[in-house]
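Lecture 7 notes: from sequence to structure.
We start with the chain below.
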Amino acid sequence: MSLTRRLLKTCAAGAIAMALVGCSALAKTILAPQKDISKFYLLTPTADTTAPPPAAAQSTGGDFTIGLGPIKLPPYLDRPEIVTRAAPNRLELSKEDRWGESLQNGFTSVMARDLAAQTGTRRVIIFPWYNTMHIDLQVQIDVYRFETDGQGNAQLSAKWTILDSTGKNILYTAESNLTQPSKPGDTTDAAAALSRTVGDLSGQIANMLHQVRSQQGAHPA
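Predicted structure tokens for the same chain:
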């Protein structure tokens, strides 16, 4: 065997060995456990549940029971990823920012706590409830939009309806479009801003509940 052929064989063997080492290192990198960079966020109530009820709540004459629900969120929010509206017709799903619980459950829970604080009642019953449960007023909410945009503005658009104790007669209905600012790119601040929009919506509903209760007191059945 000539010297040239021996050198070629040696070089080929070396190349194969280096390729195997490289493949092994690449495989270890690919198969190695990847660091979880996910971050988890929650909505939080904005009303101080330890504070005394507002004067409007005290004037309605005692405690009463609110039936809260159904609350409907749009299907595009039924996911763990936090959604940002990048354009009117384009949504972006975060690769690392997640809700720590179902957004449906979180929204409903926060709304219930805010309503309890802002109406002065300790009895907010979340839908569904037993037929034997007495409900004084029922609140239904259809959410159209609940996310932040590229500028950090948290936006909540929803239609809400107050019904009587039977749940069959509409006493009041309205649409709300609420906005709260947050720092662009700061998901912690965005979650807080979204929480504030829920508190704002709760405040509007609570004010109307007080008015309805007052009217019922002035015109008893």
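Points to note: The chain has two domains: 1-31, 39-218. The beta strands are 39-41, 65-72, 81-87, 90-99, 123-126, 137-149, 154-163, 170-180.
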